């Protein structure tokens, strides 16, 4: 393949990479926050709320991401929810990721010894203080690796967004391949972009893990 084709389509590929990063970062962080809220509600709310949360988690985890994306983008207008492709991509990532994040957080809550929580309640600590000073610092140690792993999975799920014309990296690569009738080289470059995303995510996860486990290393 001629180098001038990459020069010609380079700006489009860079823009697509930027859209991919935007959808992944905004959707993943939104899903992370929503997943934490879901895990807290499941742990401290009343039974009817837990039933609703359980149903939501099971439905989202039990259906493919592409189907959820189609329903949100094409079915949204029927209920007054009209979204641009990028908005639909970000919102679908939030919806898709939140149940998985909530289960990771729930496992972290369960990893904290109940005796410590009960002791904190006995001395009169508020639930918010218990969460902030006792539960969160300890649960970060076991949940950091699975959180990093799921962030990596979500980087590759961004490729599905091209089916609703989100101008992300795969969409721009497919456009380049269709216009130039070359397929191997563009998709090799595409693989390189995703590999860089995975390496960067893994590096950040490693830094976070090193920070939350530094007390263990000192011990």
From TrEMBL:
Membrane topology label: Multi-pass membrane protein
Keyword Translocase: no
Similarity comment: family membership: Belongs to the binding-protein-dependent transport system permease family. HisMQ subfamily.
Limits of the ABC transmembrane type-1 domain: 17-205
Primary location class: membrane
Keywords: Amino-acid transport, Cell membrane, Membrane, Transmembrane, Transmembrane helix, Transport
Upper classification of the organism: Bacteria, Pseudomonadati, Pseudomonadota, Alphaproteobacteria, Hyphomicrobiales
Domain of life per record: Bacteria
Protein name: Amino acid ABC transporter permease
Residue ranges of the TM segments: 12-39, 78-97, 187-205
Pfam families reported for this sequence: BPD_transp_1
GO terms, molecular function: L-cystine transmembrane transporter activity
Annotated localization: Cell inner membrane; Cell membrane
Gene Ontology cellular component terms for the protein in this record: ATP-binding cassette (ABC) transporter complex
